[in-house]
Design goal:
The structure holds two protein chains of two kinds. By secondary structure, chain A is mostly helical. Chain A contains ten helices and no strands. The two termini of chain B are 125 Å apart. Chain B is mostly helical. Chain B has nine helices and two strands, in the order αααααααβααβ. Classes of the chains: A mainly alpha, B mainly alpha. Chains A and B meet through helix 2, helix 3, helix 4, helix 7 and helix 10 of A and helix 1, helix 3, helix 4 and helix 5 of B.
Chain lengths: 204, 222
């Protein structure tokens, strides 16, 4: 991550239309954006398209960025709007929801080098996680991602989505219950005693 | 007093880090006292733990990112974003310059129609005027003058008076006689009665063959 002054300089240049400056600015957040899109769409190709669309929107809207919030906060709001629009499109088109772990591995070029056993284990995990996310409504999924991956507060999520903090909390609770069901965690069973429950936004 | 339902409702706040330090301590103390709530908490926390592990496994390899970055970079290049100089002008130029360089997006059919209309109008305006033989009549010069004309308010009175000559003479004689009577102080009784005189005068009156008309013309002021 560049220094704040560097980022401000990049923002200034990007606002003036400097494409290289925007590329440098985007590089710092490309992974974060792509992964969020991946968990949201559960599909490598869709995530790529969505990330590309988001960055293009940001590139075009860069001249309107006034610096009232941080660059990433501004970008995240564009991302949330893109996700919501994608959700509406997906609801009408009924795009296939989930791809199998094999398809996912095929679509994402350049995978980590695992040995066979690890690879199988990984596939099972990915399939589980995608199945669990599939079972959530798009809004539940988005709220969960914003909370768990982005570390936003209930209030921030509520403001971004235009709902109440209570609704966000309720949605998160239902999401965790659904995830528990899909991931096969027994109720009342502790997975292990040696992990500390993760704080939001610090887990990945 | 511990209430399991209330504690379980607070668990999302605990696992998602929405509690302040004091509340967190209080809730953890309650969990220690209640095995059921503690188990529920551990179950939810395990879920997130497993989710995180799986989410990490779903991430692409490191070699994925440079290619991803290049694809994004290529998309910026293909994007019809503002050219740098235009963006500069828009951002920092004075108002008059921004107005001069302003552009408006117009749908293509509307633009084509507008341009066609403009072209036709220009052609019509630039076309030389037609030389036509004038069939109009030569101009007649009409001169209008205002002249004040006195309009006399005439009143014509025509009277036809038939007067017997002998009567006229008789009157003249009578006038003469009257003058003499005044002079000679004749008595009123001796004066002849006019009715009797007239009766005498009209005796043997015959209308003349010709009629004399005296037209008196004159004007009266209004």
């Amino acid at each position: 991550m560049t220094d704040l002054s560097d980022e401000l300089e990049l923002i200034r240049r990007a606002r003036a239309g400097d494409q290289e400056a925007f590329c440098s600015l985007a590089k710092a957040y490309e992974r974060r954006v792509y992964l969020l899109a991946l968990y949201y769409t559960r599909n490598g190709a869709d995530a790529e398209d969505m990330a590309q669309e988001l960055w293009l929107k940001a590139f075009r809207a860069m001249k309107d960025f006034r610096g009232e919030s941080s660059f990433y906060t501004w970008l995240r709001q564009i991302m949330i709007n893109s996700f919501l629009n994608h959700r509406r499109g997906a609801a009408t088109a009924k795009v296939s929801s989930i791809e199998s772990a094999d398809q996912f591995f095929a679509s994402t070029k350049g995978l980590r080098s695992f040995d066979l056993e690890e690879n199988v284990h990984r596939k099972i995990l990915v399939e589980k996680i995608f199945c669990a996310l599939e079972d959530l409504t798009p809004q539940q999924r988005l709220i969960f991602l914003l909370k768990h991956h982005e570390g936003m507060t209930y209030e921030e999520i509520a403001r971004s989505l235009g709902c109440s903090a209570g609704a966000v909390k309720k949605s998160l609770f239902r999401t965790v219950l659904k995830l528990r069901e899909h991931l096969g965690v027994d109720e009342g069973r502790a997975e292990s005693n040696d992990f500390i429950p993760c704080a939001a936004g610090e887990n990945l | 007093m511990h209430n399991c339902q209330e504690t379980k409702e607070r668990l999302p706040d605990l696992i998602f880090g929405e509690m302040d330090f004091r509340e967190k301590e209080r809730t953890l103390a309650e969990l220690e006292r209640c095995p059921s709530c503690d188990a529920e908490y551990r179950s939810l926390a395990s879920t997130l733990f497993i989710y995180d592990r799986a989410a990490r496994a779903a991430q692409p390899d490191e070699s994925f990112w440079p290619a991803h970055h290049e694809r994004l970079r290529a998309s910026y290049g293909a994007s019809p974003a503002l050219a740098p100089h235009v963006a500069e002008i828009r951002a920092y130029a004075p108002l008059w310059k921004r107005i001069l360089t302003a552009s408006v997006r117009v749908p293509a059919p509307l633009a084509i129609a507008s341009l066609s209309l403009l072209a036709v109008t220009t052609l019509l305006a630039l076309r030389p005027p037609r030389t036509t033989v004038s069939t109009a009549r030569p101009e007649t010069r009409v001169e209008t003058r205002t002249v004040e004309v006195p309009v006399p308010q005439d009143r014509v009175v025509i009277r036809t008076v038939y007067v017997d000559r002998s009567r006229r003479e008789g009157r003249a004689n009578a006038r003469r006689d009257n003058g003499q009577n005044i002079v000679s102080n004749q008595t009123a009784s001796a004066r002849p009665n006019p009715a009797e005189n007239q009766r005498e005068v009209l005796q043997g009156f015959k209308p003349a063959d010709t009629v004399n008309l005296h037209i008196i013309k004159g004007s009266f002021p209004r």
